[in-house]
Every structure is written in structure tokens, then in C-alpha cells.
């Protein structure tokens, strides 16, 4: 079998110059290293082989030889990216300043302030918070341009693939609402309200008044009422009633002004009716130049609005866009632009669209009709960077973004992103210049870009000095040590990487570098253990690839296949081994050397892995099942649930969208649409989808969605009873144990909240009977409320033993033991998942109780530095308040309110702190 495996590996057609995410970025000045491993790697492969039997030794050597065309992972070739977003040195102070800007600005500035918040919050990678900022910006927008851009942005966040002209039923994304100036009214969108004026068709025009002037166009004549034509504009009024010769003539020749006789008749009709609804497109296209020539604003607006309403496809938009620009038809241009934006990212592949949007000339023409803005090019450049960071389109869009930038943060963002793109393109001198521009505007993180560009240009010591100076001048943060580590070697490098992980355990590069170094030294088991540290709480394709690579070295083909399947779920376009081999090709190779499972066996394996809380393993099984049945929407839905648990929101949304697209029945499609709406913060609309699905066919998933949407509020007794009723309805419908276990678990939680502990216990026991392992946590809560702490502790211990991912179990078990044991459990929880905030809050509270205020603040600050969480900020603000530090209290409250402006406890604390501050000012 080994021979076949190696033969298959060698027979793969390597794909040169393919683009895609990689486990590392290659240093192009050492391109030969990308083809073959270093001598150190070859020695390490031999040392691994030497520890095995002779057959295993030859097998490992053969495997290394088979991987030579791809290159083994080499530590010197791993390189972290420069993130293309704003990264303040002190994110809390930056968020605080942003919130204060709202308090001192007019409402017209609010959309741009929300956009600033969005930019500051991007490093947090929290889709809910980012979407809230975009929604807030859209709600506050009043101009047609801002509304249509932000609506398209929200639609893009949902990965909506429906027709670009369709209304999703969401007021903030409604295409008709976006083309109406002014703030939007509360309630349903215009499409749902049907509040457009109804045009009643009549036979012909109203009876005309006898004309007193005749307009001649060629050989045709049109009788008009002089006063009606004069009312269309001041120039026409002056011509017909002023001192010109036309004012006393009964016939006026309009042959030379470039309109047809039909258009003249249309002008006469409009002068009487004020409507253009019955006119043909050709007539409308002639009316607009006439309206511009004679300054007929009413006629122009009517034609503009009518033409805009007729834009339905991307081809329409391309055909009419330049005409709208030529005639300064603002609404027509807006309608065309809306189509381009609602078709993103596909529209950026259309050369006609890119010519209109990306060039300097196109931007100037857009500016002439009020449709060139920072927010427009911000959206376009983000989409283009995600599609292909190195493309000329991306460069042009970022250049337009920099031209539109006005405030400091806008310039910082545009210059920094240009630096990132130039760095990716290998244009290092230009990258350094752009990064230096951003740094001069106050973006200190761009200095890391300056250092990287210098390093790429061969100035390693200068790059080291750059980062060394940054560390000495500012409070150190994780990315500073990470960047400096690139420019030093040996023990100093490892110390910097350790400092990086201590200050910011979410950065993946230190784990990857340490893992590859261990593998180079022949300690592959230790390398896998190191990369597992980051994969426990942050799953990414590059780390999964690295673990799969190590699995190949130790001939763990099943482990390698699991990880490759999982990473292909996260990124279906991922290219492995220096960007040479598509992940799906690697799957085909590995499939031949592991046991093939039938569909029924896959379901059993999925059940086992789901029950053991092995989310990556479950994801791999679902990927395998979808390879056999790609059109099964239920499996896509399962996939989305797993991705959400792994905090891979974008991939989860893609799976939900595919589930919706593959649905064979309307009631299924409505459920998946409901989950999409729910996951993007549209609870009421999700509830409506669930109700509609139930009206077609009662199903478990429809009732379960309804229960989720109903429970997503503060539940009183009556509401809780309603949720219980809906969950019980769900349990009467056909489903499998995986989902019914979740429903029973949720039902138990509602009973606990209602103090119905016996009923809750019954639900949790039933859930455990069908191996819903997480029900141990609910059962432990029941025992705890009955003051049976030992039993509660025992339940959580069972969960820890069963669950593959058990950081939350350690955290929860800490509530059911004494302080010393709780500290141990919380320390383990932090070690397994440093992103969990409760352990920091608990330790800080204990320190505060022991009157160790400085240590308590330091414990919270440690977590806030890499995860500025609402609860952490609120607690630190409360601590500062208790210590009489009003300034720090205000700062932390303001930062917390950026994350959630409606957080009641923080609002109360902020109000009290403001009163104290005002009193102190009066006294002083």
C-alpha cells in the first residue's frame, strides 16, 4: 500500500502559479527553497526514521522523498502577514475617543463615525459586532449614495446570492428604500408596504386645453399651452414670456435642438400631466438632454426616477451608466451603481464595470454626480482584496480610496492597505513608502510594515532597529514582539515569540514557528502538540494544513485526511504545499490509503464525534458525506452548525446559503433562510420564516428555529411557556438524536430558568440517553441549584472526560468547587482557550476581594489587550470607579458602549461617572 501511496503522490500534476492561502508566505529571494526542503529538514527526516524499525525507517524515508517536490515545512519560510486593517496601539482609548466623537458630533456625521468604529473593531473579528456597526451606519444614513452602498455591504455580509433586483424583505437592504433620499421610516420596507403611489391607467391624456403656441420639429407640429411649457423652467419662461422674439410668435421652430416630434409631444404631455410613466425608453433618453438644456428640474427628476426604476440587470446598468453620467442623472447613476454593488464580487470581474469604477477618470465622473466617496471605495477595495490582493484592480481601487480619504483615520487605512498590497505584490520599495505615509499620519502599526518592507529589501538590521525602537517607545503588545522576532535568530527569537504568545495568545505565527522547529529537530509529536494549542480555540486553514503535514510525516493518513477535509470546508479554494496542490487533490490521494466508509457508517461516526465534542472531526465526516451526496441540504446545515461552534462565521454563512440553494422543498428552504436571518441579527424576520415553514409543513427544524427566535429576548413567564410549547412540538416531529438532544437540552434550560428543576432534570437525562454530552452541564446546574455541589462537580467531571474540546467544561466546573480547585480549573480553561473571559473576571474579582486592586486591574488588562470584551471592560470600569479613578472609569465605559451602546449596566455606570466628573470640575 505504501508503494501505491507514493506513486500516487508523485503522479499528481503540480499546479504552478496558483493563488490561494498558504501555510506560510515564501521569500521570493530564496525561491529554490520552495521546491526542496533544507538540509536540516532532510536530517530531521532521517532522525525520525532512525527511531523506528527497518521497515518503518524505509517507509518514512520514502515518504520524505515523495514530499520533496512540495518541500517540507521549514521554519525560515513561515511568515505572518501584515494585517490590512487599523490596529491602534491602545484599542480601548481609540474606542473611547470614537464614542466621545458621537457625543459631540451632528447626526449627519454619525454614519461615518460608525464606519470608523467598524474599522477599529475589525481586528476583533467578531461578525456580530461588525455587522452592528454597519447596521447603525445604514440606519443613520440619509443620502441615496450612502444608503445604497451600506445596504449592499450588509447584503454582502449575508452572502446573499439572490437576484440583485430582489428585495430580501429587510428594510435596511431594500433596493427601493436605498434609492429614496432622507432617513428611512421605521417598519417594513416599501416593497412590503406597497406604499408607492398607484398609477391608474387611462385611455389617452386628459382633454387638452386649446393651445396658443405651436412647436415645429421637422415636418411635424405640436400644439402646446404657452403657460404650461413656460412652467417647466425659468429659461423656458424667459423665452416664452420675456423679451425674446419667441414671446410673441405663435410658432416656434425646435428642429435644431435635437429632439424628435414624439419627444416634443411627450414634453407637451408632461407639461399638462406631470407624468412620464407612459413614455418609451427612447423618448425618456431624449427628454433628459432636453431637460438639462432648458433646466427643467421637474422633468429631469421624473425622467431620472423612471429610468432608474427600469434598471433590472447588470447589462442594463452597464448600458445606462455612462449615459447617466453624461446627463448628470443622479438617480439613474445610483440605480446602476446599486446593481454593480449588489452583484459583488462577480461584477468586479466584468471589465466594463472595473473601467467605470476603478479608473481615475471613472472616479472623477462619479464625483461629478455625487457618487464617489470613501465609503464606496472602502467597500469595493475590501471585496477586491478578499478576491485577489495582488490584482491591478485592487491597487486601482485603493488608489481611489486614498484620493477620497479626508480624515486622519481614513488616510491611515488607505495608505496602510496600499502598503499591504504592494508587499504582497513584491513591490517592496513602494510598500515601504505607503507604510511610511500611514505611519506619518499616526498609524503606529504601519511601522511593522515599514520594517517588513526593509527586510524584504535586504535591510534586516534596519528592520530590527525599527521594531526595537517601537518596543522601547510604547507599551509593548504582542504583534511588536512577533514582528521583531522575524529579524533575530536563536534564543533571542524564541524569547520574542514567547513574549508574543504571553501578550497575545491569539496570534498563530509563534505556534506555527515553534511547531515547525520541533519537527525539524525530529520531535514531530511535540510539534503536533504545539499546533494543537492554537487549534483548540482558533481553527484556521493554515494551522490545519500544518498539522496534516506533520501527520503525513508520521504516516497518520487518517489524521491527515481529517485535517485536509476540515480545512477544505473552511476554504474550498485552499492550495497546499507551497500553493502547488489543491486540497481536493490531496483528499483523493489520501482516500486510497484509509478505510472507506459507507454512508451509514459515516452517520455513526458523525454521531460519535458530535457526542465527544470533536468539532474538527465532525466537520471532516460531514465533508466526506457531502462528497457522496453533494446536494443534501441537511448535511450543509449540519456543517454550518459546526462552523458556528468553531467561530468560523463566514464559512458557516456559506454553508447555510448552500443548504438553502439545495433545498428540494419550500418548507426546508424557508427554515434555512430563517437561520440566515437569525444569524445576521434579523430575529423578527427569522421568526416569520419559521411560521411560514410551519404553515406549509410541521417539521422539527421549523419549530426549533421558532423556539430560538422566541427565546432571543428577555423571557417572562408567559413567553417561557410559549417557548416550552414550541420545543415540545419540535420533539414530536421526526429528527435524529443529534438535534433532539439539542432540543431537550434547550428545553431543560428553560425549565431551569422557571425553577422547574424536576422537569429540567428529566430533559437533561433524556438528552444524555441519546448521547447529547453537553447535557451534563445542564444537569450539573440542576444539582447545584439543589445545593448538591458534589453531584454537580461529578457531572462536569464526566463532561471533561468525554469532551474533546473541554475548556468550557473546566470553566463551568470551577463554579462547583472550593476556591483553590476553582483556580486550577480556571487556569486550565485559560490554557486551553485564552479567549474565554470568565476566568479573567473571576481571578480579578478574587484579587479585588483580597484588596489587591492593582493586581485585579492587571488581570483584566491582560485579557483586554488582545480581546476588548464588553464584560471585561465593564468590570474594569467598575473597579476603577470603586477606586475613585473617574477618568479610567469613563474611558472603559465609553469603549464598552462602542461594543454595545445599549448595555444597561454600563450606561448606568457611565452616567454616574459623568456626574462625578462634573462635580469634580465644579469643585476645581
From TrEMBL:
Q: What is the top-level taxon of the source organism?
A: Eukaryota
| Known pathway | Protein modification; protein ubiquitination
Q: Which gene encodes it?
A: ETO1
Entry keyword Glycosyltransferase = no
Task: Identify one Pfam family in the record.
Answer: TPR_8
Ranges where the BTB domain occurs: 211-311
Protein name from the UniProt record:
Ethylene-overproduction protein 1
- Positions of TPR repeats: 741-774
Q: Which UniProt keywords apply?
A: TPR repeat
BP-aspect Gene Ontology terms: negative regulation of ethylene-activated signaling pathway
Q: Which InterPro entries match?
A: BTB/POZ_dom (IPR000210), ETO1-like (IPR044631), SKP1/BTB/POZ_sf (IPR011333), TPR-like_helical_dom_sf (IPR011990), TPR_rpt (IPR019734)
Amino acid at each position: 500500500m505504501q508503494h501505491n501511496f507514493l506513486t500516487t503522490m508523485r503522479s499528481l500534476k503540480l499546479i504552478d502559479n496558483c493563488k490561494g492561502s498558504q501555510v506560510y508566505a515564501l521569500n521570493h529571494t530564496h525561491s529554490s527553497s520552495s521546491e526542496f526542503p533544507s538540509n536540516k529538514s532532510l536530517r530531521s527526516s532521517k532522525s525520525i526514521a532512525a527511531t523506528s524499525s527497518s521497515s518503518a525507517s524505509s517507509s518514512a524515508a520514502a515518504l520524505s522523498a515523495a514530499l520533496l517536490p512540495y518541500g517540507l515545512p521549514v521554519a525560515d519560510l513561515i511568515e505572518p502577514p501584515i494585517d490590512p486593517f487599523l490596529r491602534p496601539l491602545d484599542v480601548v482609548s481609540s474606542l473611547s475617543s470614537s464614542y466621545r466623537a458621537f457625543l459631540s458630533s451632528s447626526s449627519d456625521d454619525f454614519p461615518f463615525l460608525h464606519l470608523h468604529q467598524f474599522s477599529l473593531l475589525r481586528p476583533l473579528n467578531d461578525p456580530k459586532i461588525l455587522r452592528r456597526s454597519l447596521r447603525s451606519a445604514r440606519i443613520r444614513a440619509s443620502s441615496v449614495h450612502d444608503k445604497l452602498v451600506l445596504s449592499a455591504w450588509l447584503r454582502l455580509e449575508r452572502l446573499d446570492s439572490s437576484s440583485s433586483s430582489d428585495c430580501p424583505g429587510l428594510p435596511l437592504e431594500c433596493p427601493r428604500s436605498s434609492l429614496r433620499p432622507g432617513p428611512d421610516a421605521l417598519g417594513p420596507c416599501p416593497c412590503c408596504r406597497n406604499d408607492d403611489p398607484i398609477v391608474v391607467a387611462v385611455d389617452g391624456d386628459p382633454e387638452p386645453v386649446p393651445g396658443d403656441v405651436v412647436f415645429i420639429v421637422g415636418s411635424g407640429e405640436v400644439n402646446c399651452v404657452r403657460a404650461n411649457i413656460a412652467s417647466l423652467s425659468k429659461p423656458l419662461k424667459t423665452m416664452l414670456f420675456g423679451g425674446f422674439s419667441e414671446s410673441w410668435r405663435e410658432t416656434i421652430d425646435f428642429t435644431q435642438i435635437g429632439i424628435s416630434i414624439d419627444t416634443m409631444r411627450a414634453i407637451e404631455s408632461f407639461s399638462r400631466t406631470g407624468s412620464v410613466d407612459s413614455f418609451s425608453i427612447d423618448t425618456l433618453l431624449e427628454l433628459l438632454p432636453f431637460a438639462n438644456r432648458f433646466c427643467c428640474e421637474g422633468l429631469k427628476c421624473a425622467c431620472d426616477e423612471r429610468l432608474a426604476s427600469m434598471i433590472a440587470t447588470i447589462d442594463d446598468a452597464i448600458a445606462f451608466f455612462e449615459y447617466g453620467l453624461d446627463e448628470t442623472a443622479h438617480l439613474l447613476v445610483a440605480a446602476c451603481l446599486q446593481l454593480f454593488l449588489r452583484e459583488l464580487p462577480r461584477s468586479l470581474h466584468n471589465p466594463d464595470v472595473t473601467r467605470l469604477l476603478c479608473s481615475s477618470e471613472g472616479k472623477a465622473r462619479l464625483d461629478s454626480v455625487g457618487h464617489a466617496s470613501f465609503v464606496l471605495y472602502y467597500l469595493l477595495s475590501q471585496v477586491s482584496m478578499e478576491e485577489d490582493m495582488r490584482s491591478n484592480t485592487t491597487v486601482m481601487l485603493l488608489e481611489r480610496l486614498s484620493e477620497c480619504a479626508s480624515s486622519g483615520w481614513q488616510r491611515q487605512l488607505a495608505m496602510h492597505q496600499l502598503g499591504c498590497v504592494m508587499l504582497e505584490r513584491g513591490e517592496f520599495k513602494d510598500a515601504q513608502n505607503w507604510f511610511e505615509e500611514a505611519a506619518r499620519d499616526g498609524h503606529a502599526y504601519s511601522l511593522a510594515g515599514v520594517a517588513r518592507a526593509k527586510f524584504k529589501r535586504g535591510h534586516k538590521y534596519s528592520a530590527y532597529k525599527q521594531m526595537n525602537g517601537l518596543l522601547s517607545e510604547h507599551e509593548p503588545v504582542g504583534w511588536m514582539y512577533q514582528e521583531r522576532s522575524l529579524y533575530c535568530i536563536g534564543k533571542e527569537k524564541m524569547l520574542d515569540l514567547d513574549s508574543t504568545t504571553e501578550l497575545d495568545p491569539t496570534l498563530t505565527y509563534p505556534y506555527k514557528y515553534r511547531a515547525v522547529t520541533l519537527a525539524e529537530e525530529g520531535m514531530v509529536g511535540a510539534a503536533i502538540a504545539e499546533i494543537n494549542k492554537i487549534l483548540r480555540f482558533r481553527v484556521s486553514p493554515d494551522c490545519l494544513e500544518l498539522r496534516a503535514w506533520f501527520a503525513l510525516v508520521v504516516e497518520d493518513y487518517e489524521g491527515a485526511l481529517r485535517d485536509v477535509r476540515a480545512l477544505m470546508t473552511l476554504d474550498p479554494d485552499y492550495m497546499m504545499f507551497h500553493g502547488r496542490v489543491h486540497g481536493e487533490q490531496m483528499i483523493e490521494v489520501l482516500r486510497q490509503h484509509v478505510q472507506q466508509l459507507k454512508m451509514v457508517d459515516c452517520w455513526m461516526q458523525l454521531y460519535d464525534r458530535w457526542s465527544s465534542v470533536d468539532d474538527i472531526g465532525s466537520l471532516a465526516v460531514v465533508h466526506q458525506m457531502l462528497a457522496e451526496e453533494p446536494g443534501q441540504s441537511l448535511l450543509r446545515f449540519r456543517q454550518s452548525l459546526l462552523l458556528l461552534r468553531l467561530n468560523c462565521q463566514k464559512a458557516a454563512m456559506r454553508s447555510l446559503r448552500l443548504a438553502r440553494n439545495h433545498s428540494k422543498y419550500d418548507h426546508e428552504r424557508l427554515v434555512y433562510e430563517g437561520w440566515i436571518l437569525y444569524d445576521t441579527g434579523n430575529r423578527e424576520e427569522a421568526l416569520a420564516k419559521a411560521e411560514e415553514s410551519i404553515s406549509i409543513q410541521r417539521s422539527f427544524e421549523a419549530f426549533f428555529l421558532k423556539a430560538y427566535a422566541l427565546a432571543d429576548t428577555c423571557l417572562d413567564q408567559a413567553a417561557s411557556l410559549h417557548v416550552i410549547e414550541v420545543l415540545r412540538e419540535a420533539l414530536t416531529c421526526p429528527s435524529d438524536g443529534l438535534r433532539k438532544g439539542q432540543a431537550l437540552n434547550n428545553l431543560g434550560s428553560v425549565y431551569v430558568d422557571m425553577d422547574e428543576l424536576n422537569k429540567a432534570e428529566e430533559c437533561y437525562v433524556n438528552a444524555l440517553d441519546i448521547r447529547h454530552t453537553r447535557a451534563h452541564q445542564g444537569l450539573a446546574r440542576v444539582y447545584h441549584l439543589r445545593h448538591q455541589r458534589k453531584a454537580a462537580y461529578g457531572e462536569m467531571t464526566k463532561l471533561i472526560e468525554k469532551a474533546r474540546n473541554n475548556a468550557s467544561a473546566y470553566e463551568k466546573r470551577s463554579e462547583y468547587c472550593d476556591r483553590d480547585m476553582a483556580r486550577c480549573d480556571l487556569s486550565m480553561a485559560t490554557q486551553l482557550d485564552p479567549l474565554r473571559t470568565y476566568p479573567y473576571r473571576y481571578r480579578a474579582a478574587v484579587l479585588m476581594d483580597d484588596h489587591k486592586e492593582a493586581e485585579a486591574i492587571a488581570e483584566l488588562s491582560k485579557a483586554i489587550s488582545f480581546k476588548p470584551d464588553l464584560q471585561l471592560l465593564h468590570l474594569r470600569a467598575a473597579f476603577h470607579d470603586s477606586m475613585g479613578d473617574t477618568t479610567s472609569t469613563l474611558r472603559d465605559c465609553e469603549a464598552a458602549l462602542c461594543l454595545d451602546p445599549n448595555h444597561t449596566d454600563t450606561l448606568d455606570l457611565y452616567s454616574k461617572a459623568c456626574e462625578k466628573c462634573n462635580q469634580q470640575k465644579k469643585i476645581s
